[in-house]
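WARN retry 2 of 3 for item q-0093 after timeout on previous attempt; input resubmitted unchanged.
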Amino acid sequence: MDLIFRITQAIDAVNNVVGKSAAWLAVAMVLVQFVIVMLRYVFGFSFIWMQESVVYFHAALFMLGASYTLLHDGHVRVDIFYHTASAKKQAMVDLLGSLFFLLPVCGLILVVSWPYVAQSWSMWEGSQETSGIQAVYLRKSLLIAFAGLMALQGVALLLTSLLTLFNHVAPDIKKDGAQV
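OK item q-0093 returned
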């Protein structure tokens, strides 16, 4: 059981680091957008690559932050019964949801997006604009990162649910990975 705890801790730690790092993209996005507005409306000129960078920041923020949100139970759910249910019933819902919904959807996203992303990498796909960001392949790669990180967090959720169902109490661990 200790190995399972360590596996879930490692997955949680990865998604914590990625999520906290991705959160800084919101700050970058706001700052770049502010500069774009100032350049355009005060000085009368703009850069296409700056405008495209906002799209890149936005995509990365949401695609890389989704697993962090799942880790901290921040996704929207229809919470009619879950909130008042016992820990075992919540664990059963999380287990079934991960096993039959989250992991298959992540697998489907990986299978469908892999050729799309690979084709983009094979031709080093860039912006249609000559002065745009010539790294569209990196933005498309976020699909793979999203599905991979979500699947990892789904595995951690599944393992934690199994441990709860079988009455194995995890050591008291904060979500940042530190033991209490």
